[in-house]
Amino acid sequence: MSRLAIIVTICVVVLFLGSWIFKALQAQDAGVDHYLLRGFLVTCSAFLTLAILSFLYKDNPIYKFAEHLYVGISAGYWMSQGFWSTIVGNLIPRLSQSLSGFFKQPYNAGEWMGGFFYTNWVFYVPVIFGVLLLMRLSSKYGWISRWALAFIVGTTAGLQFIRYMRSDFIEQISSTFVPLLVDWQGIGHFFSNLSLSATGQLVAMVSNWIIFLGVLCGLIYFFFSKEHTGLFGKASRFGIWILMVTFGASFGYTVMGRVSLLVGRITFLFRDWLGITS
Amino acid sequence: MQQLTLSVFQPGVLISLAVIGVGLALLLRWTLQGREVDRRVIFAFIFVSVATPVLFPITFEVKATPIAKALFEKIESLPEGTKVMISYDFDPAMAPEVLPMANAVVRHCFQKNHKLVFIAIWATGQSLLNQTLQQVVAVEFPEKQQGIDWCNLGYKAGNEGVMNVIVTNLKKMFPTDVNSTPLEQIEILEGIQSCRDFALIVSLGGGQPGPKEWILYVGDPGNVPIGAGTAAVSAPQLYAYYPKQLIGLLGGVKGAAEYEFELMQKYERFKSVDAPGIRMMGPQTLAHVVIIAFIMLGNVAYLRTRRKKGGAA
Questions:
Q1: In chain B, what residues touch A159 (CB-CB under 8 Å)?
Q2: How do residues B259-304 score in pLDDT, each as one tens digit?
Q3: Residue A135 within any structural domain of the chain
């Protein structure tokens, strides 16, 4: 470990402890019950934020530490939530009365169908598949997990196919069928409400034409069985313009999203940690 | 659609413009001199353009766009006591954008005396929902009782699988609420068999599963009106569903600000509550100005380099 690294580590530790004490005292003054914990959590959040932001300068061990901590905690959090909500919440109450009592969950008794089939038996299927998935941990029997994976992939593909076919294909085609001509009610009515909100007849008609031509020309751009020349080429050219506008809108929204995150962290640092804004 | 209502001479605007203006002038000079600009200089600029309006707040009046107003009007038009489901499908990374709109929608629903059923398809949504319950419901609507006016069904793993089940049978996936109370004992859920029994479902998220999956798995097959609040990154792909499959959309912090503005315009009591969406529009605007300036500077540098190369040839 270089001398610089030791000095930096000592500085970070001293600053962390100083901040912890300061925030804890502040919390105590404000009458917070667990003021030591509160001070620790605020300081932790602030230091982890700064650790992640330090990557903007250059890659460094403090950033790596924060990154690994984030990944580990996220994985653990999702796993524990999944266990308590699904295995304890949904599965155990359908399999065992005593275990339900142990986890303080109301037992969900099944029904006998025709006197020979108990409805809760179905829930042994996910248990078996879950065990099969865990076989991946074994180098010798790892192949067994493919059965469960095949079930997951098949089911998901089937479900997604139906849903996408309906909502993203049929419904979207249907949404493209918009009136291209307005119901003429006079020139005054036609030119009224000239705002971009498309409440007026003229703007609504222009908007509908853009949707119609945008979809048509966008599709033409991706039609490669015919050479893009002449009128077809011009339509393809218009299609790529429409695509560019779409990408631009996406980029603009992405910038807005990223700036929002930065605003959120800076507000936290200035207000909750440093206390320099209200 | 934004209008700067307050004077340009407010301290936040003046300080921000002064700091950013001096910096940009310096950068323009460097660019014209043909000097390389380090990427960290750009980061520093973005930091300053965001931090300055946070320290010296700038206020904007935000006029709601029709797509955001549509969701507001839908909630406004529902009769008192209507059962609405709100799904928290986001994580802390999306919270600065989505939590303000979640809080605004909850405020609006309770103001209209609707009954709210909260769920989370993301594990992280559960703890963020607790923030809304503690900071909005408990403080601003203490009269609203759990089980009668609202209930929290909590998180359930399974992503689209959960939606696929609850569109026909809610109890199958959520046998109890978050406090292990069986659904049959919760007053608000009387007569609710599935998602089809809700007058409106509002999905607040931005990843997968999120509003898009609610449309695909619940809205379209169940014929349930879906409203959405989403992180800015996901907003463009959701516009295609409006107005047929999505009744309204709040896109990013701008959407949150628009909803907060509508709420303030309609109800006097909300003029005094914190409006983080509107508050964040100041830093947003300045950061965008800086980014636009950088794009222009980049083009100036590019044209200069091209002219030099052309001259050399």
A1: 160-161, 164
A2: 999 999 999 999 889 899 999 998 998 899 888 888 888 888 888 8
A3: yes
Domain holding A76, by residue range, is 3-83
Q: Kindly state the greatest CA–CA separation across chain B.
A: 83
Range of the domain at B13: 2-60+278-312
Q: Which residues pair with B117 in a beta bridge?
A: B85, B151
Decide if pLDDT at B4 tops 50. no
Pair (B246, B107) in one structural domain: yes
Burial of B309 (0-12, 13-18, 19+ CB in 10 A): exposed
Residue of B nearest to A195 (CA): B1
Q: At what angle do helices A3-29 and A35-53 cross, to 10 degrees?
A: 140
> How large is the average pLDDT for residues A245-266?
92
Point out which residues pair with B182 in neighbouring strands: B176
Which tens digit of pLDDT belongs to each residue from A93-150?
989 899 999 998 888 888 888 888 888 899 999 999 999 999 999 999 999 999 999 9
pLDDT at B37: 78
Nearest CA in chain B to A174: B244
* Same domain membership, residue B96 and residue B227: yes
Q: Do A199 and B66 touch (CB under 8 A)?
A: yes
pTM for the whole structure:
0.88
